[in-house]
Amino acid sequence: MINDATLGPAAPEYGWVPAPRYLLRRALILRELRAVPPCDVLEIGPGPGMLLHELDARGFHCHALEMSDAARETGRALAQETGRDIRFLASPAEDWPGRFGLVMAFEVLEHIEHDAAALREWRRWLKPNGTLLLSVPSHMKKWNPSDVWAGHFRRYERTQLLDLMDAAGFVVENLVCYGYPLANIIERMRAHRLANAVNANGESGVAAMRANSARSGTDRSYLMRWYPLLKNPLGKLAIRGAVWTQRPFLRSDLGNGYLLRARPA
């Protein structure tokens, strides 16, 4: 595994490297975590769990709920190789209600058909004073072939997301719209690249969406080609610049994703 201050952990030998949008989000997540003391943490849908490697190094007790067999096995292998104490599970454990000081779900809720029910379940797993960190893609007007490829049910609007959190019993403490302008540009390029593949496939329905969701957590082949450029000094400088550039626009709705911090009401 490769560890880098700008790019975070990467495991190219396992086919996992960070996407620029992931790095824009990661910078904000790490900033939010400054106020969260080490505790039992659960990440839902973490793929191979790269962010949990960073939390384990900070003293968190890490658990991962990952439905993809391939991602779960990769996560276990990486944790074993690096000596990280990260427990990967395919289903919730009986002792989860009220256990976690921190629950995280990044780019997960849009993959779930019944999102309100999922949020209520995640709330049950939190301690009364616990923290939820959550991200979702923003704005249905930005719906494109990459959403279909990834198995999304929806994208979210700010008011819709706030109402959903309130109905699920959460108080939102911070909400930002991230990614502008770099993630917007990359998303348009990726949508153009995926358009033909999505149209040629033509599959629809919940079963197809779930299959796409499972694939999207592990298929980073398109990123592997760009990773050598991303990890060179100019690439890392560009990422650091993009992280700073998005900051003035976090309170706008110009980005292509929402990141929020909430607590149980």
Précis, in short:
By secondary structure, the chain is an alpha/beta fold.
Q: Tell me the overall shape.
A: globular
End-to-end separation in angstroms reads: 40 Å
How many alpha or pi helices?
11
Category by helix and strand content? alpha/beta
Biggest beta sheet summary: 7 strands, mixed
Residue-averaged pLDDT: 92
Series of secondary-structure elements, N-terminal to C-terminal: EEHEHEHEEHEHHEHHHHHE
Unreliable stretches: none
Radius of gyration: 17 Å
Order of the strands making up the biggest sheet: 5-4-3-6-7-9-8
Measured as a percent range, the helix fraction is 40-55%
Strand content: 15-25%
- Strand element count: 9
What would you say this structure looks like, in words?
This protein is 43% helix and 21% strand. The chain contains 11 helices and 9 strands. The chain is globular and about 45 Å long. The longest helix has 20 residues, at 182-201. It has a 7-stranded mixed β-sheet with strand order 5-4-3-6-7-9-8, with helices on both faces. The chain has a two-stranded antiparallel ribbon with strand order 1-2.
